[in-house]
Design brief:
Helices cover 13% and strands 41% of the residues. It is mainly beta. It folds into 2 domains: 1-31; 33-167, Sandwich (Immunoglobulin-like), CATH 2.60.40.
Length: 188
């Protein structure tokens, strides 16, 4: 009976602690983290072992913000980069970042910066090694960026996202058509 009461007490304390954590996270006066960039989508990715497939990741920069491109024009600016945590059945080829838009801003109208704003897409190749097992694998990605508006830049942020890669069994190939006597492609 004492063990039952002890377990019940432990459950009540755990439940109370959990509810307090949720209440603190949803506290109306607590500031919400500022959102600068959203992950919009990744195309459906299906790849066979030993081959590659194209992939495109689309992101949206909230108005009125912009983020530095992958190749900012000065060393002080933090570039936008994608990083992945990959299962052994999936690999990535070189990513292709879009060219940034050259824009000047009120804080220094004489200087142009290379930035992304609105929608932008990063392209690449997904590969499955020849020994990869068939299945659907979740890949976790992270977009590292620094957002700015017309007056200030904000601390660098990381946007986590996830997508699936389906590794299909190796195709057996399409059977070749056999020539018949009526085929115009018979070469004797």
């Amino acid at each position: 009976m004492k063990l039952y009461r002890l377990i019940l007490l432990a459950l009540c304390v755990g439940l109370y602690a959990g509810l307090m954590t949720i209440a603190q996270e949803r506290e109306p006066g607590a500031p919400k983290p500022r959102v600068f960039v959203d992950f919009v989508s990744a195309n459906n990715i299906v790849v066979t072992p030993g081959h590659s497939a194209p992939v495109q990741f689309t992101f949206h920069v909230q108005d009125p913000y912009h983020i530095n491109s992958s190749k900012p024009l000065t060393e002080e600016l933090i570039p936008t980069e994608l990083h992945f945590s990959l299962p052994p059945e999936v690999a990535f080829g070189k990513l292709q970042y879009p060219a940034g838009q050259l824009m000047s801003f009120p804080f220094d109208p004489s200087t142009k910066l290379s930035v992304y704003s609105g929608d932008f897409a990063i392209k690449g190749l997904v590969m499955a090694p020849g020994q990869a097992s068939s299945g659907t694998y979740t890949v976790h990605g992270e977009l590292k960026y620094q957002a700015c508006d017309n007056n200030a830049c904000y601390p660098p942020k990381k946007l986590p996202f996830a997508f699936n890669v389906k590794v299909s069994s190796a195709s057996k190939g399409v059977p070749k058509a056999r020539a018949t006597k009526t085929s115009p492609h018979i070469h004797n």
